[in-house]
Design goal:
The structure holds 2 protein chains of 2 kinds. Chain A has helices at about 1-35, 40-75, 75-80, 85-120, 125-150, 155-175, 180-185, 195-220. Chain A is an all-alpha fold. Chain A has one domain. By secondary structure, chain B is of the alpha/beta class. Chain B folds into 2 domains: about 5-210, P-loop containing nucleotide triphosphate hydrolases (Rossmann fold), CATH 3.40.50; about 225-280, Alpha-Beta Plaits. In chain B, strand 1 and strand 2 (about 20-30) form a beta hairpin. The chains are: A mainly alpha, B alpha/beta. The interface of A and B includes residues 12 and 87 of A.
């Protein structure tokens, strides 16, 4: 019975987030179309790819903001916790619904981004760089989700958002300044430079650690008010 | 099956600037208890502990026979909770909220929900964000009542409501008690509401229960005596006097243990009893809180 309530809470979050999910998919595909219809023009590709990353970050911030933080701020949490669900089940439902709501459009848009690069004259060597940047957004999401679940603080949420956005610029600059990455990104075929592989490994490990910390937080935390 | 809807024993919860201490409380099934206290007294904290929204640092809490917070899920199936700061999803309609809650509770009473919709003049297609404060409060109450809970925990549900909406809400609460297996714990700082519907009254101040009794007992026990005290007469110390205010030859005695013996003690000492006043619940509440604070300060 409890499990079915947790499932209902997850479905409820999906229902309430459908405008955000639909909007991010539409915007994400639109930015990719911009890159595609530019026929490999550097300007349209640049505008399209920057907008694409912005859409992913927006999706990240909006989802965590509304599924976790806003529900606490608006005191809707009192209504949900009045249902036959424990605080742990509530938080686990939040973790799962946020993750799924992020990962579904993230994976669809990620696959579409790879396809755009594969189907246009854009050098296929950009695929590893694109994936490294996308995985960074995923890590950013996992950390933001963990912080939002762990602390009830708009201040901390803002710190994560600011740091997440600033560090993305550092990451892209650092990667493009690696000679092997810069060289590989211009290659006709995808080349996995050691720095790209190391970045992907660190990002994946970071995601796992952040989600592990979220689960530990949920199991240890006594209340979410 | 227990006869007690709520059993609280030695409960404490400490925050940086506030502590709930040594709370003891029982509420039998079939009764309405009014939990009265000033702002920041600990009413919401206590009710949230009863709902396991926050966990007590120490002490035992049983709700409908379930130990809290360990058995909170089992208890919550039979408990309806509403608080004045509880909100619903602004973009959801009332109808969506009703379907959502009904999908969770097999005992959702759809005909009763329809009755409440009409009685509260609400429409299912209304988005919550477009409702007034009173309508939102009634919508929240509808979502709770149609679950047919055995215990209702209401944290200041009448705050901000106009007199008509407050009356509708209180009438509905009285209606709930037609089923004598059900119970209501109702917190408020509005003593009129509490006096209107409660069987039992508990006063809480600064994190402590300062008095708890049935309503009639409160009304009977508390009196204000107006005395004339001639020069040279000293009023005797009498048990149950919570306040003594002397101004010239006139004295006002507030007691929580009124009896004929008490009156005789003053008359025998040489004072003249001019008037014995019954006190309203609000006066009793204020006198009780002030006496408790004086006692703690000394």
């Amino acid at each position: 019975m409890s499990r079915s309530i947790v499932t209902r809470l997850i479905l409820k979050d999906f229902y309430l987030q459908w405008p955000t999910l639909t909007g991010s998919l539409v915007l994400g595909f639109a930015t990719l179309a911009l890159a595609l219809f530019g026929g490999g023009s550097p300007v349209t590709f640049y505008v399209g790819s920057v907008s694409f990353i912005c859409v992913l970050i927006l999706l990240n911030v909006l989802l965590v903001g509304s599924i976790v933080a806003q529900e606490k701020k608006d005191r809707v949490i009192l209504f949900v916790l009045s249902l036959p669900v424990s605080t742990t089940q509530y938080a686990l439902a939040k973790l799962v619904s946020s993750l799924l709501a992020f990962l579904i459009p993230f994976c669809l848009l990620g696959a579409a981004a790879v396809l755009v690069i594969a189907l246009t004259p854009i050098p296929h060597g950009l695929i590893p760089l694109t994936l490294a940047v996308m995985m960074y957004v995923c890590l950013y999401f996992c950390i933001f989700l963990t912080v939002a679940l762990a602390v009830d603080s708009a201040g901390w949420n803002t710190v994560v958002i600011v740091c997440g956005n600033v560090l993305l610029n550092f990451l892209i600059a650092w990667l493009l300044n690696r000679p092997s990455v810069a060289h590989a990104s211009k290659a006709a075929a995808a080349v996995w430079a050691p720095e790209i592989l190391a970045t992907l490994a660190v990002e994946t490990l970071g995601c796992l650690l952040a989600l592990g910390a979220a689960v530990v937080t949920i199991l240890r935390k006594k209340d979410f008010l | 099956m227990t006869d007690l809807a709520i059993e609280v024993e030695g409960v404490a919860k400490a925050y940086r600037f506030f502590a709930l201490s040594d709370v003891k409380l029982t509420l039998p099934c079939g009764q309405i208890m009014g939990l009265v206290g000033p702002n920041g007294a600990g009413k919401s904290t206590l009710i949230r502990i009863l709902m396991s929204l926050i966990h007590q640092d120490q002490g035992q809490v049983r709700v409908l026979g379930h130990s809290m917070p360990e058995e909170q899920v089992a208890a919550k199936w039979q408990v309806g909770y509403v608080s004045d700061d509880m909100r619903l999803y602004g973009f959801g309609t009332l109808g969506w909220h009703m379907r959502f809650v009904a999908s969770i509770y097999p005992g959702w009473d759809a005909p009763y929900a329809q009755t409440l919709l009409k009685r509260f003049n609400l429409r299912t297609e209304q988005q919550i964000r477009h409702l007034s404060h009173g309508e939102r409060a009634k919508a929240t109450l509808l979502l709770m009542l149609a679950r047919r809970p055995r215990l209702l925990l209401l944290d200041e549900p009448t705050t901000g409501l106009d007199p008509v909406a407050r009356h509708e809400l209180l009438v509905e609460l009285m209606d709930v008690l037609r089923d004598e297996r059900r119970a209501i714990l109702f917190s408020s700082h509005n003593t009129q509401d509490v006096e209107q519907i409660s069987d039992q009254i508990t006063f809480i101040d600064r994190g402590r229960i300062i008095d708890s009794s049935d309503k009639e007992s409160f009304i009977e026990r508390w009196r204000r005596l107006k005395l004339e005290v001639p020069a040279g007469v000293t009023l005797p110390g009498v048990a149950g006097v919570v306040d003594l205010d002397v101004s010239g030859h006139l004295a006002t005695v507030t007691t929580n243990a009124h009896s004929d013996e008490l009156e005789r003690a003053y008359v025998n000492a040489g004072a003249t009893l001019h008037e014995v006043q019954r006190m309203t619940l609000e006066e009793i509440f204020v006198a009780n809180v002030m006496a408790s604070r004086r006692e703690r300060a000394s």
